[in-house]
Amino acid sequence: MGKAQEKLLDFNAQKGKAKNGFLFFRNTKSLDHIQTYFWRILVVVGLMGTWEMSARFKLINSFLMGSPSGIWDSTVRMLQSGQLFTDTQATVFATLIGFVLGSLLGSLVGLLLWYSGLVARILDPFVVALNGVPKIALAPMIIIWFGSGIYSKIVLATDLDTWYS
């Protein structure tokens, strides 16, 4: 075998081709990645299957937990009716408005606390107490105060962005 043929075989081997033209794995790292993805997919399929069977055999409350097939059916129905796009648009709108308002309000409060020592000392226990409350614990109260419409979503997004970012 000549030097040109050896270089060609070496070049093909580096590209992942054996000299007979079949693909092979250059190292075990590629094989490990495939095995890892296989097991990840298997875990997801197993969890989804367990969830579906638990809902069908009434081991879990399917009204509270749903089921993968029910979620799929609802998604297809909402896609066909266009409701999914409308609801997504409303959610994105509320999130963006809440983010902008929360960023502005948070920046103003931060600057106020930074530049005014008196205000910082007065508000410090309240800010510390508010940080101790779980972020989503105020959601039911906000929904009661502002209703279940777009305003409560904006207020919740604003609150989360103002105090917790």
UniProtKB/TrEMBL annotation:
Q: What processes does the entry annotate via GO biological process terms? A: transmembrane transport
Q: What GO cellular-component annotations does this UniProt entry give?
A: plasma membrane
Topological relation to the membrane, as annotated? Multi-pass membrane protein
Q: Which residues form a coiled coil?
A: none
Q: Any transmembrane segments, and where? A: 37-55, 92-116, 136-156
Domain ABC transmembrane type-1 span(s) in chain numbering: 88-165
InterPro entries for the chain: MetI-like (IPR000515), MetI-like_sf (IPR035906)
Q: Where in the cell is it found?
A: Cell membrane
Q: Which UniProt keywords apply?
A: Cell membrane, Membrane, Transmembrane, Transmembrane helix, Transport
Signal peptide start-end: none
Q: Which domain of life is it from?
A: Bacteria
Q: What's the protein name?
A: ABC transmembrane type-1 domain-containing protein
Q: Which species is this UniProt entry from? A: Effusibacillus dendaii
Its lineage reads: Bacteria, Bacillati, Bacillota, Bacilli, Bacillales
